[in-house]
Design a protein that fits this description.
With 80 residues, the protein is mainly alpha-helical. It has one domain: Homeodomain-like (Arc Repressor Mutant, subunit A, Orthogonal Bundle). The protein has five helices and no strands. It is elongated and about 40 Å long.
Length: 80
């Protein structure tokens, strides 16, 4: 792997993807959460534990991220 600074990596990543690396990771986590919630086999807390880390391992924070990215609450996603 190339030896580049984190700042330079983030800059290159944003140029190629159009979003910052942390935004990309969050978006991927929300997509995974949507998929898991749509299966209706896991609770919001279980899903948050599967897709999150310290930042979104709490169900309330997952809900906030989910609403921000998907424009719908996780419990509404399971009802669809």
């Amino acid at each position: 792997m190339a030896q580049i600074s984190p700042h330079y990596f983030a800059s290159l990543f944003k140029q190629s993807r159009g979003i910052a690396p942390h935004q990309y990771v969050t978006k991927c986590r929300v997509e995974r959460a949507k998929y898991l919630l749509a299966k209706r086999e896991l609770s919001v807390i279980q899903v948050s534990q599967l897709v999150g880390d310290l930042i979104i391992s709490v169900a309330n924070l997952l809900t906030q991220f989910f609403i921000c990215e998907a424009q719908i609450a996780p419990d509404r996603e399971t009802a669809l």
